[in-house]
Amino acid sequence: MPQIKHVFFDLDHTLWDFEKNSALSFESIFTEHTVPFSVEEFLHNYIPINLKYWKRYRLNEITKEELRYQRLKEAFDSVQFKATDHLINTIAELYILRLSEQKHLFDGSLEILNYLKAKYHLHIITNGFEEVQYKKMYNSGISNYFLTTTTSEDVMLKKPHPKVFQHALQKAKATTQESIMIGDNLEADIFGALDVGMDAIYFGNDTTFKGKRVEQLLELKKYL
Length: 224
Known about the structure:
One of its GO terms (molecular function) is 5'-nucleotidase activity. There is one protein chain. This protein is an alpha/beta fold. It folds into two domains: 6-17 and 105-222, 3-Layer(aba) Sandwich (Rossmann fold); 18-101, Putative phosphatase, domain 2 (DNA polymerase, domain 1, Orthogonal Bundle). It has helices at residues 18-32, 39-58, 64-78, 85-101, 109-117, 130-139, 152-155, 162-172, 186-195, and strands at 6-9, 121-126, 148-151, 179-183, 199-203, 213-214. The chain has a six-stranded parallel beta sheet with strand order 3-2-1-4-5-6, with helices on both faces. The radius of gyration is 18 Å and the shape is globular.
């Protein structure tokens, strides 16, 4: 793809292994607070609940504070644990702190970033909270790979809103024709990028998507 000069990545679930890092964060918190059930049992319910609330947050149906509280409240309710508001708020704050300290990346992340950095300008576009996204990148050792980072809080909007991508392109001094987006979320990352005229590569296993797709990050070498 000789016309491509700028490669934009999503962060969570694309480079940074959100589920693994999330599990480790909850494990340490539950141990400290003697929560009476396993992390595995909790996560079985929490993961789909979290995705549901993130979608509502993306659609501006709830605030950041409501997201942080309600996803935990519903997850605790689902395992019949009557958590007090104080405990939920304490865990919510600790979770954000611990999450940003985790370092696990998906297999092939550093190798593909080294490969791409030699050929392209690299950037991040993320819907994650600004105060933790930069810490995640720094603590996992990938900050220096990226020339720009655009968060939803920069624009006060969230992917797939076109203004998020337009702001990121402007910040990177890039055009749509010379840019490509890589992400795990078809709605937010892939269709959002395609709708503004950027090319896109889906990182995931939904075989109904007929565009460019990889299931391992090193497969990006097929396209870039």
